Amino acid sequence: MEKVLIVRYGEISLKGLNRPYFENTLLKNIRKALKSIGDIKPYKAHGRVYVDLEGQDVDEIIEVVTKVFGIVSVSVAYIFEADIDKICEVALEHARECIEEDGVKTFKVESKRGNKKFHMKSPEISRTVGGYVLSNAEGLEVDVHNPDVVINVEVRDKAYVYSRKIPGFGGMPYTTSGKAMLLLSGGIDSPVAGWLVAKRGVEIEAIHYHSYPFTSDRAKEKVIDLARILSKYCGRIRLHSVNLLNIQKAINENCPAEQMTILSRRFMMGIAEKVASERKCKALVTGESIGQVASQTLESINVTNDTVSMPVFRPLIAMDKVDIVKISKDIDTYETSILPFEDCCTVFLPDRPVTKPRLEKIIESEKLIDVEGLINEAVENMEVIVVKTED
Questions:
Q1: pLDDT digit string, tens, across residues 4-49
Q2: With contact defined as beta carbons under 8 Å apart, do 186 and 337 qualify?
């Protein structure tokens, strides 16, 4: 019997007159994601998106579709002509599958009648189908409060029967909320920050800093791998790779040692803003969380903010590390993030970095080096890598 994937979305339904824009963007994003599998064409109807599953690898499609932002859940459903006798037969067949595959012993039926021309109302459909299943499925009992399985019946243009709802990540369709530049390190936090912002519909580009040859190619590949994992959710990502070594040498030779971390951070933000402006991004995104390291005290964050005029999004700012780690595991970045390759922050690392910097002192130190010239040089020598899932 023919099967279809029912795709449900959440917040989009609240968008009023703008709803078609969000729905069409979601449909486009699903279609683009499914290209990695084959020529599969999702379609929109009755406030949902559907994907025909005939002859397809169902598990592979579910794996891809549930990563598309904006999707709340999906279900594999039987689809057929809306006839109550046929609905009863299909529901019984599905109930028997649940008994055989999952060992269920109790059930209930829930119905929705979207087609008001259908001769039965929802409660009557549930009673009729439930009674038929109870009479013909050996060993199965009704439990309306805590059943092992809920058999869902929907009557729209056709009838749909399904049970399992597989959760998606929700959020808003990717690219519906503008574009931002993610400062992507090789750690746990920044990929999670980028993922969270992308989940709200923000298109992301990424910028990464290294200190080659003081840092290795393997450290750079680690960041490319993280961008590739994020691309499973976002599609292709433009990664800007910047060598910070000359800047760090200038700071080391001319400025107080304890200011290395905060001065480097100001350069990173300044470079990121310059590249972001050129790429028409409207904000920067960082993985900072209050008090986690020396550059993430309130004083340090204020000094860092002073160097840019563009808004800075910090989605992890009040999150505990354990919560950040949980998300990183859920989105599959954790195992890559903990690979033990050095990053640029370990180069010229001071024994006692300043944790409560004073802005006036930092500005005085920056007068000792050519800030604008160093930023321009770093951007001119920047490498751009386009990362996508199938790479």
A1: 999 999 888 778 889 899 999 999 999 999 988 888 889 998 778 9
A2: yes
